[in-house]
Amino acid sequence: MTVLDWRARRAGIAGLSRWMGLSNAPTSAFTVDSGAVSTCTAERVRMILPRVDSGAVSSLDAASDTAYSGSVIPAVRVRMPARARNVVTAAALTAVAAAAASVPGTPWHHVPLLVFGVLAALQAIIVVTADLPLLSESQSASASVAILLTAVILLPPGAAVAVGAVGALFLVFRRVPTARLVFVIACSVIAPAAGSAVYQALHGSRTLVTMDFPRALPPIGAATLALAAVPALMTAALSVAGGVVGWKSALCDLLRGSFPRNLAYGFVGLLSAVLWDNRYPVMSALVLIGPLRTTHWAVAQYIGQRAAHDATIRALVQAVEIKDLYTRGHSERVAKVSELIARRLALSEDRIAILCYAAILHDVGKLGVPTRLLRKTGPLDAEEAAAIRLHPVRGVDAVRDIAFLNEAYAAILHHHERMDGLGYPSGLAGERIPKFARIIAVADAFDSMTSTRSYRAARPVEEALDELRLCAGTQFDPTIVNALEVAMREAVARGEPWTGDGTMPGSGSGSVLGTVLVPVPEAGEYARDGYGCDNYSCDGYGRDGYGRDDDGRDSYGRDDYDHDDPAFTVPSRAVVSLPADRQTPG
Amino acid sequence: MTGPHRTVGPPTLLSCVAGAVALAAAVELARGGVVQAWAAVVFGLVIALGEAVRVALPGGRDSAPIAETATLGYLLCFKLGHVAATYPAVEVVTVVAAATLVGISIQAYAGRPPQPGYLARRVLTAALAAVAYRGWLLNRTVPSLAHHHQVALLTLVLSAVALVTMIVSHLLGVLLALLGPAGLEEPVRGRLTWHAVGEGLLGECRTADRVCPTVVLFGTATALAAMPLALWALPLVMAPVLVVQRSLHRYAAISATYQQTIRALSQVTDLAGYTAPGHARRVCHLALAIGRDLALPGGELLDLEYAALLHDIGQLSLTDPIPGGATVQIEPERAASVAMLGADVVRQTGVLSRVADILESQAHPYAAATAREPVHLAGSILRAANAFDDMVGSALDPDRRLAAVRRIRLGTGVEYDPRVVESLARVVKAARP
Fold this sequence. Notes:
The structure holds two protein chains of two kinds. Chain A is mostly helical. Chain A is built from 25 helices and no strands. In chain A, α15 packs parallel to α19 (407-413). The radius of gyration of chain A is 29 Å and the shape is elongated. In chain B, the strands form two sheets. A two-stranded antiparallel ribbon of chain B has the order 1-2. Chain B has a two-stranded antiparallel ribbon with strand order 3-4. In chain B, β1 and β2 (61-63) form a beta hairpin. The two termini of chain B are 25 Å apart. At the A-B interface, α12, α13 and α18 of A face α7, α8, α9 and α10 of B.
């Protein structure tokens, strides 16, 4: 095949996609959304599958990554690829068995070839134009269920399986990785086999014209259920094997995700079969894939609007960060850390999305704080500290009218509470602090410590985690600190170690010497703070209202994390004290 | 969404006509008696349900695919099972009118203000289509086509009727939007010109282009499938339309959320003490009223709305607030630089670049802007609206408002766009308490 042929074919596929309303498919829109607030199920599957395919490569990467492998955090090998591969293999074997059981005995001379051809062609169109990652998660999956239902009703089992298999084979034109290809084809074989088996077992009729309608519904309903449930369950199994979600969460996603949609849409298959039997072949084909255009358009619009929404929130939050030059990107990073923690804690997708919004907006109330105070490097007097301490309340004022945020209000309001009840604004303690607020508190502190501030340099991840561990129980929720530790270890194992704002020693971006020395903290500044050292209470967090009195005592910092850290008193010593394995950027 | 919430105003001619038509149909039906009442009840229920869950798409357009599909199906049916569908046109009109009324009442109960214009549109469309199809076409061509199994021609005729019905519906929608009663949210109605009708229809078609084919397809499919399945065709057809409806609903919901977020975040300058409380919202209302008066298309109105809400965001970069937050009272260079900063923030979203353009252009006086490039109308509107609100604030005193208009008028052609100044004067006069 010449290059030209390939181009023509690709152009044809692109044209087809455009006709189907897929040209502005979600994938492109999501590039805007690739950060903290991308949480739909399809996205998550998208996250798993590349790893499935490049599993060997990524674990090799993790092993050879010198940034952390020799350090405190041990490199954990990712178990996911092997288990996911097992699922794919099992699916493939089941598919082969199902095909072997149904295809050989098919009376092909009785199969209406026109029906077979049209349905296989439609299935191929769906496969070629569908928005991957997985057919069962795509909007087009609904139409696929409907087509297979038509096949199950109008054709013998072997032919129905063949419709699914022939259509799915067109996936080779999509240049998808082998594991994904095998999995999708397996889904497309097992689903019609299961649907046909159910339909036959319940004595579904293949001649719809003469049938008594209400009585024909149970077998058709059961077949639709099987057709929609099989790919959904297989995808859920793959997600679970991929290790990203627990069973509970996967089943929850399944029931609230594409499954109900596929089930509802599946009944078009029945409509299509009826129309075919009554000699309306064109309508019969059109109703199968016609609504896809509308659904795809609406979904693309939805995703576009959602991406725009997130981008707008981020840009406006950055406007807040204009006020405090050293906190640029802070909100975004807090959202990322919060998301990592939440995934460890196995929160549901919806709650993670809200948490991310809350984390991004947690400091929006600082708009109400005069810029002069935020940029001030010297000690704050009581009145100034009080002004800063108002920011969570003002933040809630700002977002109160955004109805969907609901659970986020409490998180924004209470993100400076402490486990021992000495935080602000309400002085809540322990479990009475909303979970989101506890997560954001940890993420906020972690990011403050691992990025550079006007009065000290960024600190490495382990030091920040040590500090958090010391404060766990008094200031932070220990389970959340644990979750963060595990999440950080996993991030290293994945080959994506936390880099903070890019100035952290050993983060691998830029020279170590340069990054540590850039924000030169003067020794005098620390002296002014009343400490000979940098510590958690006076870095960024101090600004957030763990205000310091002029006499040098930290009025809210309760000393439990005032641990001298000689490494950061003088910049040159910081370089000297870096662990040997981190002198070389990863 | 540019003001889908119209309140009840003086009934317009079209609404009166629609009411009269519905009444006449009901009276005629009562005289002739209801034929095939079960079909009327089932279709009526589905239509009412579809109307109750109709979604307001961005741009102030409503979409009710379930109700529209069911209406088309009810209209087009020629056989229910083995029985000919003999119900007359007046029955269709009465059922559609009653079901739509029920649906709208349910929405009103749920908190959405009723829209008499929408009801009028549905009734008039149904009446025109029913009289043309059921009164005339159905008796002549359709039965013979069905009898002779000319399926292709039959499908074509039914789809054509469905398509024409949808186009009539959109045209009526545009006319009603332009003639419709002015509400509180929109103190000034748009003016009826060929240009405005054309723009409106184009906008309608652009949205309808996506939803309309599905409605036409499934409306026709209902009629065709009703021949073997009788009313069982309805749930089969409605399942996929429900999926479409849900996806539209999600789109509408996220758009509403987006708007809510921008509205909420536009208040941060108030909270931070940079602007007078409610300034952004008042500027937004005024700018939209002027925009509507000048017949800005729907998309540009939305951009103008966002620009008006966010126009002071650049002030956040100032270390200390401008006294009173009134950019009209500081030196022009400084105001321009603040506006530029705001435009930069908005441009960073990556999705609101047209809004950023408006913010940029509003910083320049009219004369300076015309010297450089064709003037940005939305920018000029925002500039005038902002100046007006900086002078008046939340005061409702008519003398003060007129004085502000006079002051702005002094800057006509130099500071402000003449078209906008005239429009501002009209709007302020019309909105007089």
